[in-house]
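Methods — Computational structure assignment.
A single polypeptide chain was analysed. Its primary sequence is given first, followed by the predicted tertiary structure written as structure tokens.
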Amino acid sequence: MSKNALSDLRNSDAANPSYPEPFIINPTSTHTHTIILLHGRGGKGQSFGTKLILSKISSGGTLQKRFPGFKWIFPTARKRRARALNNATIHQWFDMPTLRGAEIENKAWQTKERDLGIDGLSQGVAYLHELMRQELASVPEKNLFLGGLSQGCAIGLHCLLTFDRAIGGFVGMSGWFPLRSQVDDMLNDGDIDQAISFCNDEHTEVMGPKESPATAAIAVLKANLDLTPSCPAHAEPTPLGTPVFLGHGDADKKVECKLGEQAADLLRRLGMSVMWKVYKDFGHWYKVPDETDDIITFLQHSTSVGTHC
């Protein structure tokens, strides 16, 4: 794709920066918790959310009945041109040049065309951060949860790691971690110079030899997404205290299971607590009731509620 064509696509997407109103399912009892869950590529918040909260669990209930104090928020990504679909306009959190298996990582983020994906990640994360901050006016940090399916999980992980505090937990299904190789290199090498190279030149003096690899890795993510005007200070990034659930089918042909496992491994190396579950002979979706049961277990461990059925 030519440089001019890339610029045209970015300008076309930038002309419509607004996001649709989220689909919200209010709690059936006193509001105690909020969970924000993100749909996959080509989906919408309402269709994804309606199916998910009514999914059956082994006890015969549903996610909504199990957590009556939860407010469920299902945002919808704005429409973007999809290069892999002949530039068709679809709801997606960010664009990728391919839809095929492992290539969503090793091709989409290692070419000159990656700026289109970065643009979407940056805009989406900024939007989701604002949504999270709005909910923190109603619930404490420990009662706020985030998560998503497929591409929703992918952008959700970036949203989590670049947030300014830990939250109650993260729930990811059939996802992966965009730009994983950059963070992986940082953790392998502990190379602070690499983090500096992603920051604006006038701010490089704030980086020093005391930064841990985890801090430097978060600096890379924030700088890539243009979320801060400078590299972060010396304090450890607080989002790393957030517990994480990641589930994946081992027969997933859209986002290969190994990409989910690599994401789980990366988060553990950052110092995070991760529950990783693999579902045998299952493809690209969440498995009912096996995975929904595991999500309930994770949420129950992270909260003091969830005894209703």
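Note: The two ends are 53 Å apart (CA to CA).
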